[in-house]
Amino acid sequence: MAMTRELPFVKGHGTGNDFVILADPEGRLDLSEAQIQWLCDRHFGIGADGILRVVRTEHLPEFAEWADLAEYFMDYRNGDGSIAEMCGNGARVFARYLHASGLVTDSEVVIGTRGGLRTTILNADGSITVDMGGASSPASMAEAVVRVGGRQWEATGVVAPNPHAVVFVEDLDHAGDLLAGPPIEPASAYPDGANVEFVHVLGSRHVEMRVHERGVGETLSCGTGACAVAWAARRRLEPDAEGETTYRVDVPGGTVEVTETATGSLLMTGPAELVARGTALLPG
Amino acid sequence: MAMTRELPFVKGHGTGNDFVILADPEGRLDLSEAQIQWLCDRHFGIGADGILRVVRTEHLPEFAEWADLAEYFMDYRNGDGSIAEMCGNGARVFARYLHASGLVTDSEVVIGTRGGLRTTILNADGSITVDMGGASSPASMAEAVVRVGGRQWEATGVVAPNPHAVVFVEDLDHAGDLLAGPPIEPASAYPDGANVEFVHVLGSRHVEMRVHERGVGETLSCGTGACAVAWAARRRLEPDAEGETTYRVDVPGGTVEVTETATGSLLMTGPAELVARGTALLPG
C-alpha cells in the first residue's frame, strides 16, 4: 500500500458550487498544486470546484495588517490549484463553516480575502449574505455582441470586479451548449476574456440565468455572475430606480437574492450547506 | 438549519470508477432512492458513480443461503438509485475495504453479489483480482455495425454477462464524442442496448480502450467492458491461443489486466484505493 497523509476536511456547497474546506488556523498547511488538484478531483480524490483554506489572518504575513478587522482569512484556490481573488458562493460556505464550527459567534463576520475584506451575515432563516462590493460598466466594454447558434445579442459589460458579458434572451435554451465559451466580438472589448451570462426575465425583479465561466464551462452557479446580472437587470428594466432594490436570481443550482443598496453595494444572499466532514487520505 | 442525519462513509475508487462505501453489517440501513442520489451527487452531496453497501450476507433473507460461502454481500446501487447486479471495479474497491477495515484476514475472499458469488484476491503488490466469470458471443449479436462520424465498424458482440459491442479501431479518436451512445445497426442485435467499447491494439496482448456505458455516457473505466475487450481481442488477434492468456487493458482512468484461464474464467486485476473516510450529513 502506498503511504498516505491524513488530512481532515469538511465539504460544503452554495447553490451547487462546492468546496473542500481545510481548517488551518495556524497557517501551517502547505499543499502542492498536485495535492489541491487531487482534493478537487471528482473521481480520484474528494471532488470540488475549489478549496477554502481557513487561516487566522494574523498568520499570513501578507495580510496580517487586517488581523484586527478580520480574524479569519479565506484562502481560495481553484480546482486546478491556481489562486483566485474571491468567490461569492465560497464566502457564504466559508462563513457557514465558521459559524457551524463555533469559531465565530457574532452573526456579522468580516472575512479576509485576496479581493479585500468582505462582510458576511448569518440571517435568521439560516441563509448567509455576503457584501460583494460594487459593480461598474466601463465604456471599453460597450457595443460588444455575443453569438450563439446563428443568433446574436448586444452584451452589457459588467466589472464585478471580474469581467462579465450579460445578455438578455427570450429563452435560456438560446444559450445552447455552453461547454465552449460563446464568442464575443470584438474580442478586444474583453482583453482578459469574460464570464458570459444569459438572462431571462421571469417577472418583477425576478430573473433566471445560465452562465459560462471563463476557463471552466457551464456551471451550476456563479456568485459574481448573479451580482452582475442583477446589476445589469436593474439598469435595463428600471433605469430610473432609486434606493435599494432586490432581485431574485435563479441559477441552475438554486436561487440567490441580490440587493443593491442605495450606496451601490451588492449584497448576495443564499444558501450554504455543509454536507460531510472527514479525513482525506492524501497520496504521499 | 435543516435537520440532518449523520451517516459514516468511506470513499474509494478503482481506475477512477468511484464509490461511496457504507458499512451496514447488520443490514439495518434503509436508504431511499433520493438519499442514494444525494450521496452520489457530485455537487450537492458526496459524489460517486455508485454506492457499495457492506452487509453480512446472513442478514439478507434473499441471499442468506450463501452466508457460509460469503460472509459479506456487496449491495451495489447505481448513482440514480437503481439496482445493478455486479460491478467489477466496485468489487475490487469492496474487497479493499474489507481488508483495510480488518473485516477479513485471508487474502482470498468470496463476496456475494446480485450477479452471484465472486472470488477476490488481495495480491502481494496491493492490487486486487476479481473473478468476473466467463463471457460468450451469441449468434444473435453477430454482424451488427457501430457508426461514428461517417465511419462504421463490425462489432463483436460479447455477453459478460451484460451486453457489449466491441469494435477495433486504428485510432481511439475515431470514437469521437461518446456522450451519446454510438448507434448500433441493426438495433435488434442488442434488444437491451449495449456498452460500446472502442479498442486500439498497442502491442502484444496490450490494448487501450474507450467506453460508452449504456445509460451513462463515456466513463473512465468499465470492469465488464475491459473483460469483454480482452476476451474479444484474444479471439481476434490469436484465435488459436490455448491455455491462459493475460491482456493489459489501458482505460482512461488507469490500467487493468485481464487473465483468461484455461477454463474460460476472466480474472480482472487492478488498483483499488480508499481516498477518504468521514460522516455524511444527510438531509433529513
* Continuous helix count of chain A: 3
How many extended strands of chain A? 19
**Percent helix range of chain A:** 10-25%
| H and E string of chain A | EEHEEHEEEEEEEEEEEHEEEE
The CATH superfamily of the largest domain in chain A is identified as Diaminopimelate Epimerase, Chain A, domain 1
Beta percentage of chain A is 35-45%
> What oligomeric assembly is this protein in?
homodimer
CATH topology assignment of the largest domain in chain A: Diaminopimelate Epimerase, Chain A, domain 1
Identify the most extensive interface between protein chains: A-B, 27 and 27 residues
Shape of chain A: globular
Radius of gyration of chain A: 19 Å
Distance between termini of chain A? 11 Å
Mean pLDDT of chain A: 95
Number of domains of chain A: 2
CATH class of the largest domain in chain A: Alpha Beta
Class based on secondary structure composition and strand pairing of chain A: mainly beta
Largest sheet of chain A: 16 strands, mixed
Low-pLDDT segments, ≥5 res of chain A: none
Task: Please give a structural write-up.
- The structure is a homodimer of 284-residue chains.
- With 284 residues, chain A is mainly beta.
- Chain A has two domains: 4-131 and 271-283, Diaminopimelate Epimerase, Chain A, domain 1 (Roll); 139-264, Diaminopimelate Epimerase, Chain A, domain 1 (Roll), CATH 3.10.310.10.
- Chain A has helices at residues 33-40, 88-100, 223-237; strands at residues 4-14, 17-23, 50-56, 72-78, 108-113, 116-122, 128-131, 145-148, 151-154, 156-159, 163-168, 184-185, 195-203, 206-213, 217-219, 245-251, 254-260, 266-270, 273-283.
- The termini of chain A are close together.
- The mean pLDDT of chain A is 95.
- The interface between A and B is medium-sized, with 27 and 27 residues.
- Strand 19 of chain A pairs antiparallel with strand 19 of chain B, so a sheet runs across the interface.
